[in-house]
TrEMBL record:
Name assigned to this protein: (S)-3-amino-2-methylpropionate transaminase
UniProtKB keywords: Aminotransferase, Pyridoxal phosphate, Transferase
EC category name: transferase
Domain of life: Bacteria
Organism from which the protein derives: Hominibacterium faecale
Length: 449
């Protein structure tokens, strides 16, 4: 069975069938939609792919965090089939469908935002969720501005391109919306030299305070938006003491705190949502967005906040045609059921423990490993050419990713300098597959040094 299989390359990538299909892709699809992996999927199960040429490949990217529950989960297939046989679509502005309500009720139970009573709305992508969260915050507070951070990635709509730090994702797309201001994110690995972690957190809090002086006054700021673990920014976790400070700033000034859990959500962090750590520490967000693994691969995303915040939104400013599609909602309800019954957060913690131990071994063996970090199973390794200077090793990372896929393991780069390799393996991966993946990963490192 494919879901239990181990990586096996039977023909060099890309194989003959894959070459033909990739050539068709190049002729039919814009080149700006890039793909650097020389394979074409035929089917997928668990954390494994079989390509059109019969190669078996272990996927440690999972659609960039979409497949926490794995490829083609049988229970999801049944749930989607059952709903699709009733109706594919019903727009909530026209006719109420119960799947939307059931999923909203479930999200209101499990999402760790502030408020005794919560409400949830659905859209179709992470970018849409983030953009709607901003609209909700502006409408609820009556304020025009937001603060985001260096290293942030929030999407590719016009608003979320403005929110996203790395402008490689937005070349030639300006002018961008006004009212988006940026503070420095607390990257403790790259903190100013000589500072302790505690001193660095104070430094980054002060940097945030400077934005209120130099860019947007506190009484003009609707929300502060951040990822609990930065994704494209390099898998950088927000230190809990910094989050507490942000929460206090928000509370003292009528500002809403928004956590973007598009990538960190759905058991990846060792909790169902990383914001649960904040709730436990007394600094839960006001609004939370989530997407990616919410529906096992079907388009869906969500914004959850207190009823007080949601009910303050001006009618007609949120919603849309496909938002909360019933088939996607049925899949999401099944994802929650499976992840709860099978304790996916515990799976994430166990995988993280195993991989972190191996990554730490590598750090002692290979001088190119500068930092190992993350939260739960959302982990990254930052590669450098000089440990003292922390010089980014982007070319090495590109070589490792390329070497690994040819051996049967899909890895992906991340980070402001493209020198981090992220770990987003489906959480249903087997122990044997983790061992095989770690072996290939280290072989690729050795080969590229």
């Amino acid at each position: 069975m494919l879901r239990e299989a181990l990586p096996k390359i039977v023909t060099p990538l890309p194989g003959p069938k894959a070459k033909e299909i990739i050539a068709r892709r190049e002729a039919a699809i814009p080149g700006a939609i890039k793909c650097g992996y020389p394979l074409v999927i035929k089917r997928g199960e668990g954390a494994m792919i079989e390509d059109v040429d019969g190669n078996l490949i272990l996927d440690w990217v999972g659609g960039v965090g979409v497949l926490n529950i794995g490829y083609s989960n049988p229970q999801l297939i049944d749930a989607v089939k059952e709903q699709s046989e009733k109706y594919f679509h019903a727009m909530m502005n026209i006719t109420t469908h119960e799947r939307y309500i059931e999923l909203a009720e479930k999200m209101n139970e499990i999402v760790p935002v502030r408020g005794d009573k919560k409400k949830t709305m659905f859209v179709n992508s992470g970018a849409e969720a983030d953009e709607n969260a901003v609209k909700i915050a502006k409408s609820a507070t009556g304020r025009p501005n937001i603060i985001v951070f260096t290293g942030a990635f929030h999407g590719r709509t016009q608003m979320t391109m403005a929110m996203t730090a790395k402008k490689a994702y937005a070349i030639g797309m300006g002018p961008f919306p006004d009212g988006v201001y940026r503070a420095e994110f607390p990257n403790l690995y790259r903190r100013p030299e000589g500072m302790s972690e505690a001193e660095a957190i104070e430094y980054y809090v002060n940097k945030l305070e400077e934005v209120f002086i130099e860019a947007t006054p506190k009484d003009a700021t609707a929300a502060i938006v951040f990822e609990p673990v930065q994704g494209e920014g390099g898998f950088i976790p927000a230190p809990i003491e910094w989050v507490k400070a942000v929460r206090k700033i928000c509370d003292d000034n009528g500002i809403l705190m928004i956590t973007d859990e598009v990538q960190s959500g759905w058991a990846r962090s060792g909790r169902m949502f990383a914001s649960e750590y904040y709730k436990e520490a007394g600094c839960a967000p006001d609004i939370m967005t989530t997407a990616k693994s919410i529906a096992g691969g079907l388009p869906l995303s969500a914004v959850t906040a207190s009823a007080e915040i949601m009910d303050a939104v001006t009618a007609g400013t949120i919603g849309g045609t496909y938002c909360g599609n019933p088939v996607s909602c049925a899949a999401a309800l099944q994802v929650i059921d499976v992840m709860t019954k099978e304790d996916y957060p515990a799976k994430a913690r166990a995988i993280a423990e195993k991989c972190t131990a191996k990554f730490n071994e590598w750090a002692k063996k290979y001088d190119v490993i500068g930092d190992i970090r993350g939260t739960g199973c959302m982990m990254g390794i930052e590669f450098v050419t000089d440990k003292a200077k922390k010089t980014p090793a982007a070319d090495l990372v590109a070589s490792i990713v390329n070497a690994a896929v040819k051996k049967g393991l899909i890895l992906e780069a991340a980070g402001t300098y493209n020198n981090v390799i992220r770990f987003l393996c489906p959480l249903c991966v087997t122990d044997a597959q983790i061992d095989a993946g770690l072996e290939i990963y280290e072989e690729a490192i050795k080969e590229c040094l």
